[in-house]
């Protein structure tokens, strides 16, 4: 196993653990909030802002995991029209190239949002948690999406070049 695969496995393990913990937190916090409000008549102030921050990280890290596993949504309609594997590979390469371009835009935009959040110093109303903490989830996810898209691009180019050069 090469160096990059080890790093990828460590990152994936961290992401999976974080997604699990965040999912459990959100579930229990929502149920707890309902129980406190409906059964006990007690409003738990600030719970919503904690759930919102956790949900942002959960969604963004989940998107990064889907990108890592290449299990995100795709529209591979060429496979329905033809059995030509080379055409499938070319279309996959085009789609991956577009994903890389879009990921670069996402990194740029999320960095702008994150740096704006740090500059403005906005905080949540109850716990005064800096808003850039939730905005950071967009930056982290977009960087991971870019890295995985670059990995996929390299893989797709290698796969297509092996088919182009007879062995």
Description:
This protein is mainly α. The chain contains five helices and no strands. α1 packs antiparallel against α2. The longest helix has 37 residues. The protein is elongated and about 70 Å long.
Key attributes of the depicted protein:
mainly alpha; single chain; about 170 residues; 5 helices
Order of helices and strands: HHHHH
Distance between the termini: 25 Å
The chain-level structural class is mainly alpha
Q: Kindly report the average pLDDT value.
A: 89
Return Rg in Å. 21 Å
Fold blueprint:
Layout: H1 3-39, H2 47-68, H3 78-81, H4 85-120, H5 132-164
Helix pairs in contact: 1-2, 2-5, 4-5
In short:
With 167 residues, the chain is mainly alpha-helical.
């Amino acid at each position: 196993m090469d160096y990059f695969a080890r790093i990828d496995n460590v990152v994936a393990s961290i992401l999976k653990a974080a997604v699990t913990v965040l999912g459990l937190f959100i579930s229990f916090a929502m149920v707890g909030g309902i129980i406190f409000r409906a059964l006990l008549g007690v409003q738990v102030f600030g719970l919503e802002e904690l759930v919102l921050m956790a949900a942002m990280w959960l969604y963004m890290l989940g998107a990064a995991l889907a990108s890592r596993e290449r299990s995100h949504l795709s529209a591979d309609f060429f496979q329905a029209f033809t059995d030509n594997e080379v055409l499938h590979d070319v279309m996959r390469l085009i789609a991956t190239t577009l994903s890389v371009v879009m990921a670069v835009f996402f990194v740029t935009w999320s960095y702008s949002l994150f740096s704006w959040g740090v500059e403005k110093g906005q905080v949540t109303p109850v716990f005064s948690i800096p808003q850039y903490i939730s905005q950071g989830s967009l930056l982290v996810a977009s960087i991971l999406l870019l890295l995985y898209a670059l990995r996929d691009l390299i893989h797709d180019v290698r796969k297509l070049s092996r088919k182009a050069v007879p062995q």
